[in-house]
Design the sequence.
């Protein structure tokens, strides 16, 4: 039986690579067919490379277990992606037994394809040198992406509760750069402030879908609402293809926001243009005011706040943002906030025109070392600010790590964020 399971894996992997894209092309269209074909093609190469070398370093008594896990992972991945052809929100059993292991296996195999290429650069010189002992020692490293993916499941499942203090109103660097940030995680309580801060909860990139169920997002929203913030600001990308096809899901998930009437405002992200009316309805059902290239002002216990919501655009962003800000000029004695889904658009803003921009979109970089207390992610030093606080002049940008993700189906070392932002409008002793 164990030999049959081992022999079946390459055929199941190849069949998945061929059948799912063909089914997608016939039932959903070319775009999803190409996406699934490329995803499975790279994952097929990675998984087959690792699977074929398992006997080189695993004891015979353990090998059947790993063979069975590989086969299950590939079957789950195939079933999950086949179900995306007729996407809708699935129940907890399906998500637990199919979606989670299937997507984790795809992510691990995707990483494995590139990891094996990197290892090959190390192994080739060792082959030429005849260093057989060293090559044997390196063999278990093949499976490192799968260990990373298993560990990433804990990162993926739990957003980190934080209190984040952002100081405004001071001069900043002439060139765009990251600023240090006062961040208090989990149960660490920050020292009390002399001045009352503006308390904001930001919700961004929840991506309601396989990893973010209605129940999970509702619990998270409930916990954030319990902070009794002055404002709840939602910066886009609420849905996935599953929740796009399940209209009541977003309204149910954000229902706790009904406890804060007049305090909740939102802007569109890029994925919200896939089902704009579904997003509008879900927000409106909970009293969330959607700002699509629009603005409003709110009186809070910490003072007056002007909130501008920018729509997501891909082209001519600078002209779009300049026109939006000119149409809604700064109000006297009001804090000026901009909801801007994509943080890279901060580079297109006029200097010193807003006090604080709130963004998401990058999922915090999604792959990095944030879980270990380091700022590094794969987006570091790119045009896309990954997470945390940035500045140019007097303007500040806060990039939230988000509560979900879409596309690459795991967070690796970059946990989601469930933070309370305290905007400090005066220096703290």
Sequence:
């Amino acid at each position: 039986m164990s030999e049959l399971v081992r022999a079946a894996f390459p055929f199941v992997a190849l069949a998945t690579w061929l059948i799912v894209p063909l089914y997608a092309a016939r039932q959903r269209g070319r775009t999803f067919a190409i996406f699934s074909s490329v995803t499975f093609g790279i994952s097929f190469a990675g998984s087959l490379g690792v699977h074929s070398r398992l006997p080189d370093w695993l004891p015979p008594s353990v090998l059947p277990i790993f063979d069975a896990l590989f086969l299950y992972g590939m079957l789950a991945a195939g079933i999950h992606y086949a179900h995306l052809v007729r996407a809708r929100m699935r129940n907890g059993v399906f998500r637990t037994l199919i979606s989670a292991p299937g997507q984790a296996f795809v992510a691990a195999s995707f990483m494995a394809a590139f990891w094996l290429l990197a290892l090959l650069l190390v192994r080739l010189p060792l082959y030429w040198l005849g260093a057989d002992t060293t090559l044997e020692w390196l063999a278990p490293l093949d499976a490192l992406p799968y260990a990373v993916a298993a560990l990433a499941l804990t990162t993926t499942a739990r957003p980190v509760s934080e209190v984040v203090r952002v100081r405004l109103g001071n001069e900043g660097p002439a060139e765009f750069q990251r600023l240090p940030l006062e961040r208090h995680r989990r149960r660490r309580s920050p020292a009390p402030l002399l001045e009352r801060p503006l308390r904001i909860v930001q919700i961004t990139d929840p991506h309601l879908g396989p990893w973010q169920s209605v129940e999970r997002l509702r619990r998270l929203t409930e916990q954030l609402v319990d902070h009794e913030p002055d404002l709840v600001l939602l910066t886009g990308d609420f849905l996935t293809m599953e929740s796009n096809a399940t209209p009541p899901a977003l309204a149910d998930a954000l229902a706790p926001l009904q406890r804060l009437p007049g305090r909740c405002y939102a802007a569109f992200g890029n994925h919200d243009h896939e089902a704009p009316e579904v997003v509008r309805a879900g927000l409106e059902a909970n009293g969330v005011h959607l700002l699509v290239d629009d603005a409003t002002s709110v009186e809070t216990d910490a003072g007056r706040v002007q909130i501008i919501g920018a729509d997501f655009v891909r082209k001519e962003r600078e002209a779009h943002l300049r026109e939006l800000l000119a149409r809604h000029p700064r109000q006297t004695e009001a804090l000026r906030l901009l909801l801007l889904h994509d943080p890279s658009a901060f580079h297109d803003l006029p200097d010193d025109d807003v006090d604080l921009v709130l963004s998401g979109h990058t999922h915090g970089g999604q792959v990095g070392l944030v879980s270990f207390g380091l700022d590094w992610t794969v987006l570091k030093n790119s045009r896309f600010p990954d997470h945390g606080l940035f500045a140019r002049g007097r303007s500040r940008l806060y990039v939230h790590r988000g509560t979900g993700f879409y596309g690459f189906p795991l967070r690796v070392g970059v946990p989601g964020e469930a933070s309370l932002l305290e905007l400090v409008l005066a220096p703290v002793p």
Observations:
- The mean pLDDT is 93.
- The chain has two domains: 2-155, 158-424.
- Residues 158-424 form a domain with the Purple Acid Phosphatase; chain A, domain 2 fold (CATH 3.60.21).
